[in-house]
Known about the structure:
By secondary structure, chain A is an all-beta fold. Chain A is 0% helix and 54% strand. Chain B has strands at 5-7, 10-14, 19-24, 31-37, 44-49, 55-58, 61-65, 71-76, 85-92, 100-101, 105-110.
Amino acid sequence: DVKVTQSSRYLVKRTGEKVFLECVQDMDHENMFWYRQDPGLGLRLIYFSYDVKMKEKGDIPEGYSVSREKKERFSLILESASTNQTSMYLCASMAFTDTQYFGPGTRLTVL
Amino acid sequence: GQQLNQSPQSMFIQEGEDVSMNCTSSSIFNTWLWYKQDPGEGPVLLIALYKAGELTSNGRLTAQFGITRKDSFLNISASIPSDVGIYFCAGQLSGNTPLVFGKGTRLSVIA
């Protein structure tokens, strides 16, 4: 079974803090994705990566950056967290010829 | 970014009833996927469709890939309380492009 894990299920941070959300997949997938999910807005793509050290902006990259130093790990970084970044963050991975698998999500609250 | 039109937004049904939901798009996709998300969890893949006209079942779930490649539906027969959750459709143009998601259908089952 494909396993996508996220470093925290719940996280509470203060405005202005730097926040790291980590995602690890164990299936040697090339593609990895970060989404945020908000009520009424569905899943919105923040960033994705097709390979190590590669990254592409999604639909809402502002206020976020990413890092992919190893194939199995894709990190989402909030350089200076703001209250409007309070959300559920979902990581996903996908092989080129396979479907997309999600992690359990991190519910981030920024106070 | 592009999003799929998914309907209905929410449904309240009696246990034992059948459920139908659908997704439409203004552009074609080569893959349609249906996911279910339980509260506080990441979406889990239910059914993947790869060919126009394809009809695929997974237990009480049946999904079809529309012949025009611009739509898909998901049926759930004889609903049970554990069917409660949010159902998302997703379309993909090719293996190396991000999924496009609908906003989800929230299903509530009344015992």
